[in-house]
Design a protein that fits this description.
Elements: E1 3-13, E2 36-49, E3 52-53, E4 57-65, E5 74-81, H1 86-96, H2 102-107, E6 111-120, E7 122-126, E8 130-134, E9 138-144, E10 154-156, E11 165-177, E12 180-183, E13 186-195
Parallel strand pairs: 5-6
Antiparallel strand pairs: 1-2, 1-13, 2-3, 2-4, 4-5, 7-8, 8-9, 9-11, 10-11, 11-12, 11-13
């Protein structure tokens, strides 16, 4: 089966700014704990799994990374927007869990425990302050870091990047899902595209 999803993501996690996960460094939060707990909400502007349309669906990827990413033993959970059909939710469950191959299939080699799929309202927010919201679980606001010229700070060509280039910043808010609670600190956002045609390495979106 073949699949493609593309759109925008916003991520937040417990790591002190900047998060070291994209370059496979040891995570560290403001309290000195060496783990990363985070949430990434993906809005799928366009997508499909074979003939099943996945456009205009949102989902949240929850993570616990106990060490640097390539050390593995990740805990991963999925929440699919309640507005999606059961068929769309099942398709995203297969994609995120790695069953359908492609870049997420490659990442699944690092999973220690897949925590399964749940359903709730999931959305990216932009009411003055960008962010993400998962009903009853997570609500984070995002603010970009900026350079001397006032433009957003970006990271390019990261080992574990969700996009070839992504904007980095700070998040505020709290999350509690799948037993993975945290206070947010780091954030990032970008446009992404993942496809089952990509068969090597970590997912690398194209902005």
């Amino acid at each position: 089966m073949s699949w493609t999803i593309s759109g925008k993501y916003v991520a937040g996690c417990s790591c002190a700014v900047l998060c070291s996960c994209p370059y496979d460094g040891q995570p560290r939060d403001a309290e000195g704990r060496t783990e990363c707990r985070g949430t990434i909400v993906f809005h799928v502007a366009e997508g499909n799994l074979d003939d099943l349309d996945l456009s205009n669906v949102a989902f949240a990827f929850y993570n616990h990374f106990p060490s640097n990413l390539s050390s593995g033993n990740w805990k991963v959970g999925l929440v699919v927007d309640s507005a999606a059909s059961d068929e769309q939710a099942a398709a995203l469950d297969r994609i995120v869990s790695g069953q359908e191959g492609g870049p997420l299939g490659e990442l699944s080699q690092f999973y220690g425990e897949y925590l399964g799929m749940e359903r709730a309202s999931v959305s990216l927010t932009d009411s003055g302050t960008p962010g993400l919201k998962v009903e009853g679980r997570t609500e984070l606001s995002y603010e970009p870091l900026t350079g001397a010229d006032g433009s957003p700070t970006k990271v390019k060509n990261a080992m574990f990047g969700l996009a070839t280039e992504f904007e980095v910043g700070k998040t505020t808010g709290r999350s509690d899902a799948f037993g993975l609670s945290y206070e947010a600190s780091y954030g990032e956002t970008a446009d992404y595209i993942f496809s089952s045609e990509e068969s090597e390495g970590a997912p690398r979106g194209r902005v």
